[in-house]
TrEMBL record:
This is 2',3'-cyclic-nucleotide 2'-phosphodiesterase/3'-nucleotidase. Residues 44-289 form the Calcineurin-like phosphoesterase domain. One of its GO terms (biological process) is nucleotide catabolic process. Belongs to the 5'-nucleotidase family.
Length: 596
């Protein structure tokens, strides 16, 4: 079995088989000059990434077919149709299919089989294993979200796959050995009369797992630098006979990180291409960008490394095409290029739909259960720049849960503050029936609730850091709500507090924007030495977003999922009424004048 103690027996056999090819390759006779020199062959790589539990072209939060302003479609079933079309077109020629990770988290479908009916309890095959096995991938890389539900579920999902799962830089913390299969070398037939091509595929996961899923991996797994790991394994793969080296990496190409410098780079793919010789191409993910074709020059060899990222959720399929020649017993790539295919051009593959239909149907029924009645419509559309009741709903529940848990403890007399982020711009609680899918649409992540103690000075520093989300806009300058935020800061890295009252002056420089910070309902400034219990999600408390002061020992951590706490609160009350929880306590200003 795959676990922090080492790769599975099946994976060991694959690696051993790859290693065993080395002497055969070394002894391969050089081909005589002639026809082989003048001939060319081709290899196609099809790549997916960040499918995030999307199989059907379905929006579980709207209970309708997925649609967006750009008319994108989503889902592995759509990807399957494109992949099958290309395989048919290339019948008899070499076609590989890889995925760059973030596969088993992101939709109510994936959550249902991790939380409501976890595969670890039922033994049922995960929907993403069912779907991907129909497609018959050649390998998948583990993304950071693969670790969200703990190592036992991840291990079982890997064993349910009919192909290898790779993560070379995930290392057993005790033994220092790879916790998962680092790479595979596949023997590929290029067609009649062509010698076998050996394609090495190296998988790299994201070092941010050490922060984002600290509770699941601390003391068990270590996540090494992706560049250094590639530099370690690429020569090994070449020595063991890889004619072509491909990397499937769960990290973007920006060279930046959302966390601090204490961990290896989050998005180092371009650096890998630049610094590590011997790589032909990199399929990458994590950033959810559409990068059709990017070439990076290796600084040591001058070789052009091909990079491509296929967006997210199954919206796009990367296609890389390589032209190869055979000279003096060696393979050489003479041409490489990448294109991008849009899944909105095809229908869903019926075999994939059939494989997951029962699980999809069960999930749809679950998310359409009514949990409460809302007295009015509550929308998240303005939550980024206005204090809204729907975000206060989250903060109220978090405050109530933490306050009740700390009653009778040494922290019982401290005020409880709460932090929430506007994860969704489209979430709505309709007037009347509020369903599970409405709550899930508001809180789209599988975070758990924790609490720490912050001083007044730390609360101010935290708010100042959060306020960098906004562009600087001078007094009197026009304000467009759609352009008010800095595009470099995602919505999920902007937090609002409840329990204190404050102003954010967006006409002032970053770091000097919290112009009023007082105790709730008073004019009393928050003292630097004041003490507060702060309810916060595990992602943020573990360092996600690199917010200051929040990474410290928890005073509350019952491993309760925030989304489920929201559902439980609504079911217990039966009614969602803003009068029970809405406390306007923050606003955007310019020189004291409210922006909205």
């Amino acid at each position: 079995m795959t676990s922090p103690s080492g790769p599975s027996r099946r994976q060991v056999l694959v690696a051993a088989a790859a290693a065993a090819t080395a002497p055969l390759i070394a002894a391969a006779p050089a081909q005589a000059a002639g026809a082989a020199r003048s001939r060319t062959w081709d290899l196609t790589l099809l790549g997916t990434s960040d499918t995030h539990g999307n199989v059907y072209n379905w929006d579980y939060y709207r209970d309708a077919e997925y649609d967006d302003s750009k008319k994108n479609d989503i889902g592995v079933a759509k990807l399957a149709t494109l992949i099958n079309q290309i395989r048919r077109e290339r019948r008899g020629k070499a076609t590989l299919v890889l995925d760059a990770g973030d596969t088993i988290q992101g939709t109510p479908l994936a959550t249902y089989y991790a939380k409501q009916e976890p595969i670890t309890a039922t033994g049922e095959k995960h929907p993403m294993a069912r779907a991907m096995n129909v497609i018959d991938y050649d390998a998948v890389t583990l993304g950071n979200h693969e670790f969200n539900y703990g190592l036992p579920l991840l291990d079982l999902w890997i064993r349910q796959l009919g192909f290898p799962a790779l993560a070379a830089n995930a290392v057993n913390a005790k033994t220092g050995k790879p916790a998962f299969l680092p790479y595979v070398i596949k023997k590929v037939s290029l067609g009649f009369g062509a010698p076998t091509l050996r394609v090495g595929i190296l998988g790299l996961t994201n070092p941010g797992v050490a922060i984002w899923d600290k509770g699941n991996v601390e003391g068990k797994l270590r996540f090494d630098d992706m560049v250094a790991t590639a530099a370690k394994w690429v020569p090994v793969m070449r020595a063991r006979g890889a004619d072509v080296v491909l990397i499937s990496a769960h990290g973007g190409d920006s060279g930046t990180s959302s966390y601090g410098p204490e961990l290896p780079n989050e998005n180092p793919v371009a650096l890998i291409a630049q610094q590590v010789p011997g790589i032909d191409a990199i399929l990458f993910g994590h950033a959810h960008n559409e990068v059709v074709e990017r070439f990076v020059t290796n600084e040591r060899t001058g070789a052009q490394v091909l990079l491509s990222e296929p967006s997210k959720w199954g919206q796009r399929l990367t296609r890389m095409d390589f032209t190869l020649t055979r000279e003096r017993g060696r393979w050489a790539i003479t041409k490489k290029a990448a294109t991008m295919l849009n899944t909105n051009t095809v229908v869903e593959d019926p075999k994939v739909l059939a494989a997951v239909r029962a699980q999809h149907t069960k999930t749809v029924a679950y998310v359409n259960q009514v949990v409460a009645q809302s007295t009015v419509e509550l929308s998240a559309a303005e939550s980024r720049y206005k204090d809204t009741p729907i975000l206060d709903f989250i903060n109220h529940v978090q405050t109530e849960v933490v306050g009740a848990a700390l009653a009778g403890t040494t922290y019982a007399d401290l005020p409880v503050l709460s932090i929430a982020a506007p994860f969704s711009r489209t979430a709505v609680f309709p007037a009347g029936d509020v369903k599970i899918r409405d709550v899930a649409g508001l809180y789209v992540y599988d975070n758990t609730l924790e609490a720490v103690v912050l001083s007044g000075a730390e609360v101010r520093a935290y708010l100042e850091y959060s306020a960098k989300y906004f562009r600087t806009l001078a007094p009197g300058a026009p304000v467009d709500p759609e352009q008010i935020s800095d595009p470099a800061v995602p919505d999920y890295n902007y937090d609002v507090f409840s329990g204190v009252d404050y102003d954010i002056d967006i006409s002032r420089p970053v770091g000097q924007r919290i112009t009023r910070l007082v105790l709730a309902g008073t004019d009393t400034p928050v003292a630097d030495n004041a003490q507060f219990v702060v309810a916060v999600n595990n992602y943020r408390r573990s360092g996600g977003g690199n917010f200051p002061g929040i990474v410290k020992t928890q005073v509350y951590n019952a491993q309760q999922e925030i989304r489920q706490l929201l559902i439980d609160w609504a079911q217990a009350k039966g009614t969602i009424d803003p009068a029970d929880f809405f406390q306007p306590n923050w606003r955007l200003v310019r020189e004291g004048v409210p922006v909205f």
